[in-house]
Amino acid sequence: MNTRFEKSVRSSDEWYTPKEVLKALGRFDLDPCAPVRPLWPTAEVMYDRNMDGLSLKWEGRVWLNPPYSRPLIEQFVRKLAEHGNGIALLFNRCDSKMFQDVIFEKATGMKFLRHRIRFYRPDGTRGDSPGCGSILIAFGVENAEVLKNCSIEGKYVQLN
């Protein structure tokens, strides 16, 4: 996750999704951006950066909390859009080229989160509140229904 938005001096792409977010979204088959040393499982199959999740085969329902450094974020989001079955967790940057050219064109639904997510660091400590809110992006009708009906507070918007 891009820590330029987190109110911290620590800079890393290793920021982990809280378990309660994952639990609210259900079981995932694949996480192509899993941590090297996960604090908890994010999917049945987990590719870390040493495995190069962009080049490996994606199957089933995908969980995507991508590295927020460029160009990786765009590459992973584009691959999920092409795969068409999964949910991505991103910063709410709807004005960005990636949102305008990929997400708004390919996503099925979005959930603008009501509260900012305090992600976890690799050592298991909770990070500070980021300076930007998060959004969940659904690709595929089933994933859009999950976002629409899950317990995570926010505003759901149907796209395609």
UniProtKB/TrEMBL annotation:
Under InterPro entries, the record lists:
Dam_MeTrfase (IPR008593)
Give this protein's Gene Ontology molecular function annotations.
DNA binding; site-specific DNA-methyltransferase (adenine-specific) activity
* Keyword line: Methyltransferase, Transferase
Q: Name one GO biological process term.
A: DNA restriction-modification system
Kindly give the Pfam families that the UniProt entry links to this protein.
Dam (PF05869)
Q: Does the keyword Methyltransferase apply?
A: yes
What is this protein called in UniProt?
Answer: Adenine methyltransferase
- High-level lineage: Bacteria, Pseudomonadati, Bacteroidota, Bacteroidia, Bacteroidales
